[in-house]
Amino acid sequence: MGLQEKYSELINLATDLGIDNLQVREQNSVLYIDGDARSAADKDKLWVTYNKIDPDYRSADVVMNIEVTQGVLREYTVENGDSLSKIPNHTAFPGRIFLKPIKILFQIRI
Known about the structure:
By secondary structure, the chain is α+β, with helices and mostly antiparallel strands. Helix content is 25%, strand content 21%.
């Protein structure tokens, strides 16, 4: 079985998701999949499918170079009374929250 056949589900998913500039090539017993995803969620779907076919990526016979071309899906301004459990209900991912790390500086005056 060739690599393109082994990973046909992954290749078909990339096509179905509309991965832009999709290039699939086999070289030196490694399958290279390159392209541009429209969202991080689409990229994640590809990785989940890859892990399903090759659990824990043990075969080491695929190199996926998928870039996310779309930026932030939606910004949300925290309002008075919001909590981490309420914010996801206002975002594009109900029930899930992705926080960007921030640095908070405290200045103490004595």
